[in-house]
């Protein structure tokens, strides 16, 4: 039989009846185990954590006072046993790195050796809110749970209401470190900007009573030996082995040298009398990881700050050699070479195996061949249609870049390599070696044939199956960064440039106008993850063109959008051709001459070997004398 539904009043009456309570005679209450509290006098194995921010001897008193205080605290509780006092000295609390005592204490907790940790304050335990909360939670989840008591804040982490207060206190502690970090950075900046430099201990120097660097002559001999040997061609490993065999001491008194310690001495500008500040910086005050300063922070360099041990020219030469060694290249210091006369006047020969030259060096070398007021390129003469000729004013020569053809005379640059088209190789009569020349002011590149014996020769082609030369990829890590800087290119993109050959008699040269470039953009740069247009393009002059299914998209300068090419008459005097005057001097094979303005007066090899032998003999004699004493 179907039951009659209860009315609303009946439902309410049943609920009230249910909540009237239960007869205590039939209900047994089993109380929960009392939660741990710091003030309970139950038996506990207690650990104390102490941290002082610096290892200054004056902080020792602070540590001893804390140690005595907590020993007395534990002693006052009869059921407590002091496991250990864990102490970190001279360690920041914003990171767990290098906090050996702290990390060992946490491991002992996990091993069941500790029941409770006592520390002075949240800031002593951790100045990083993430570390503080995560570690206390991890300790509270152990079986049995380990609580942390922060005395100043009167917080015990095993209490239910502790985490909110702990979060606030940890946030304050972290922000305090942040403020201190900003104040310290501002203080360092003010010191540097007012000429107050930091000069840590360095091999070859001592500090006088005013904190200034003064030469330590005995250590200076070791420094000179390091620089002379490297300039003469020895590797860092060979130098380290030599110094170890001679028992030369480092600044810390060690007699074992490593290649890294040798490189550290070779890289330090203070050996030549200068001081460069802020070589590294710390991006985050939380992890204290240092990073090499590559323009991210302001730097200051003081010239002739103190007496030099090594000449400035020798120091610069060593830096060039070190930079070049990254690309596996060794040898004597090369010179920049520039063409003084002829059609290629002002062009500088590119050394494909040397990374020491900078864009400013190329500019100086090119400018050295021009007199005051002399232009690098001749002025374009106005061209008009002759009587009876077709008047082609208003007509344009379409840019070859707009036509997809495998017959293009082109070269493609990336930060790692250079590759010329097969047409380029054919137009230089299938020669396998070429010389690359650059005119920095006019953004022009010239390619001409050369022999394998040329020290600047580039092997751009190899023999093919049918006797014709095939293009090969040219590895250019040593010089391409400088090329990109010269032309103002973005390092993450590839660039393609169309060239034109000029030929006379049996001599040919290919010229490239580096301002007329196509840019290959990765497809993902044009749209973001939502499919919207991405405005983060290389610069405002570059715009995408027609859609493509390829992984990269070709982009042209926006100025090209106003026409198909250049005027018929102005094209006949294109920039890359205006350097070649058929009616005038040709001299396309004019040899490049050393640039005299480089100004490096490096110690010659004969004096280097003389200095090396002299210092080694002195070191050996000094070692025998010390042994006799």
UniProtKB/TrEMBL annotation:
Transmembrane segments: none annotated. CDD domains: Ser_Recombinase. SMART domains: Resolvase. InterPro entries: DNA_bind_recomb_sf, DNA_bind_recombinase_dom, Resolv_N, Resolvase-like_N_sf, SSR_resolvase. This is Site-specific DNA recombinase. It comes from Succiniclasticum ruminis DSM 9236. Residues 45-195 form the Resolvase/invertase-type recombinase catalytic domain. Residues 202-328 form the Recombinase domain. It comes from the Bacteria. GO terms for molecular function: DNA binding; DNA strand exchange activity.
């Amino acid at each position: 039989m179907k039951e009659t539904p209860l009315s609303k009043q009946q439902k309410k009456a049943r609920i009230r009846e249910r909540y009237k309570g239960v007869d205590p005679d039939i209900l047994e209450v089993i109380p929960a185990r009392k939660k741990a509290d710091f003030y309970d006098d139950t038996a506990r194995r207690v650990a104390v954590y102490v941290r002082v921010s610096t290892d200054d001897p004056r902080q020792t008193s602070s540590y001893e006072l804390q140690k005595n205080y907590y020993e007395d605290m534990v002693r006052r509780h009869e059921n407590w046993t002091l496991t250990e006092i864990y102490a970190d000295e001279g360690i920041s609390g914003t990171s767990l790195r290098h906090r050996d005592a702290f990390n060992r204490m946490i491991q002992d907790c996990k091993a069941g050796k500790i029941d409770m940790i006592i520390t002075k304050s949240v800031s002593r335990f951790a100045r990083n809110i993430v570390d503080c909360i995560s570690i206390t939670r991890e300790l509270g989840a152990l079986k049995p749970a380990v609580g942390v008591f922060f005395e100043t804040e009167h917080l015990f982490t095993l209490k239910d209401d502790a985490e909110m207060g702990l979060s606030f206190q940890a946030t304050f502690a972290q922000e305090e470190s942040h403020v201190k970090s900003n104040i310290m950075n501002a203080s360092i900046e003010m010191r540097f900007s007012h000429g107050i430099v930091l000069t840590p201990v360095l091999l070859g120097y001592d500090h006088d009573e005013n904190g200034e660097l003064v030469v330590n002559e005995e250590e200076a001999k070791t420094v000179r030996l390091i620089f002379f040997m490297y300039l003469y061609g020895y590797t860092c490993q060979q130098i380290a082995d030599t110094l170890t065999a001679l028992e030369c001491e480092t600044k810390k008194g060690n007699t074992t040298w490593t290649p890294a310690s040798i490189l550290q001495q070779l890289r330090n500008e203070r050996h030549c009398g200068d001081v460069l500040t802020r070589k590294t910086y710390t991006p985050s005050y939380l992890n204290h990881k240092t990073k090499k300063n590559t323009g991210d922070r302001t730097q200051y360099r003081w010239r002739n700050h103190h007496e030099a041990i090594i000449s400035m020219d020798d120091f610069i030469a060593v830096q060039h050699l070190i930079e070049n060694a990254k690309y596996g290249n060794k040898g004597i210091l090369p010179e920049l070479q520039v063409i003084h006369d002829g059609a290629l006047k002002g062009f500088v020969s590119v050394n494909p195996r040397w990374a020491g030259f900078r864009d400013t060096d190329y500019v100086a070398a090119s400018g050295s061949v021009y007199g005051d007021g002399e232009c690098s390129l001749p002025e374009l003469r106005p061209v008009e249609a002759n009587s009876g000729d077709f008047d082609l004013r208003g007509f344009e020569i379409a840019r070859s870049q707009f036509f997809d053809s495998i017959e293009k005379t082109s070269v493609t640059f990336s930060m790692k390599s250079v590759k010329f088209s097969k047409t380029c190789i054919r137009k230089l009569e299938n020669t396998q070696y070429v010389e690359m020349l650059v005119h920095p002011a006019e953004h022009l590149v010239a390619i001409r044939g050369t022999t394998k014996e040329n020290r600047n020769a580039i092997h751009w082609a190899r023999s093919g199956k049918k006797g014709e030369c095939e293009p090969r990829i040219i590895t250019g890590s040593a010089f391409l960064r400088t090329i990109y800087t010269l032309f103002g290119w973005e390092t993450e993109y590839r660039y393609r440039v169309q060239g034109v050959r000029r030929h006379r008699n049996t001599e040919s040269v290919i010229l490239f106008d580096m301002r007329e470039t196509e840019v290959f953009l990765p497809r993902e740069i044009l749209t973001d993850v939502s499919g919207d247009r991405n405005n983060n393009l290389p610069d405002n002059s570059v715009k995408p063109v027609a859609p493509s299914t390829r992984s990269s998209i070709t982009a042209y300068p926006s100025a090209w959008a106003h026409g198909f090419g250049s005027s018929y008459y102005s094209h006949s005097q294109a920039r890359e051709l205006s350097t070649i005057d058929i009616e005038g001097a040709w001299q396309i094979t004019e040899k490049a001459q050393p640039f005299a303005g480089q100004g490096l007066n490096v110690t010659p090899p004969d004096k280097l070997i003389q200095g090396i032998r002299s210092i080694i003999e002195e070191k050996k004699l000094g070692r025998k004398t010390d042994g006799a004493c």
